[in-house]
Amino acid sequence: MSPSICNKCNKEKEMYYKEWCPRCDKPEVKKIESLNLIQVLRYLECNGYPGIKDRIWAYCADIYNFHNDSSFYLGFPDPDIDSRIDYENGVYDDLMTIKNSFNIEDDGILMDVSW
Ligand SMILES: [Zn+2]
Q1: Which residues have their alpha-adjacent CB atom under 5 A from ion ligand 1?
Q2: What is the pTM of this model?
Q3: Distance 21 CA to ligand 1 centre (A)
Q4: Order of strands, edge to edge, in the sheet holding 108-113?
Q5: Cβ-proximal residues to 51 (8 Å cutoff; 6+ apart), any chain
Q6: Dist. CA 32 → ligand 1 center (Å)
Q7: pLDDT tens, 62-108?
C-alpha cells in the first residue's frame, strides 16, 4: 500500500508509525514524564518500605549505566508473566511498589539521577 497524498498540500505522505506529511505536520515537543530516582527511593523508604533504597539503588547501578545528572528508563516487571524469578530478593516487589505508588501505567518510567 503506497502512502496517500496530503489533502492540504498534495505532497505524498510518508510512513512514520502512521502517515505523516513532512510539509504540514509540524513535530510537537513531547512532554516526557519522569521521576527523580533518589527522591522516589527516599520517599518510599520514609513511607513504609525500609531497605528499598539500598536494594533498588544496587539493582539500578548493576543494570543501568547512570551517573550524576543523567537519566535512564527504569523498566517494570510484566505482571502478566510471573517473572519474579528474574529478580533478586525483594527487587520484584520493590519495582511494583514504585509502579503502584506513582500510578505508572506504562511498562517503565524515565528516572532522573542527580545528587
Ligand atoms: Zn501536507
Answers
A1: 6, 8-9, 11, 21, 23-24
A2: 0.75
A3: 5
A4: 34-36, 108-113, 70-75
A5: 45, 90
A6: 27
A7: 999 888 999 999 999 987 777 777 888 899 999 999 999 999 999 99
13 burial class (0-12, 13-18, 19+ CB within 10 angstroms)?
Answer: buried
Q: How many CA atoms lie within 13 A of 30 on its CB side?
A: 4
Specify whether the CB–CB gap between 34 and 109 falls below 8 A. Answer: yes
Cα 12 to averaged position of ligand 1 atoms, centre (Å) = 8
CA of 4 to the centre of ligand 1 (A): 10
pLDDT tens-digit profile of 42-52?
A: 999 999 999 99
Alpha-carbon gap, residue 48 to 27, rounded angstroms: 43
Cα of 1 vs centre of ligand 1, distance in Å, is: 19
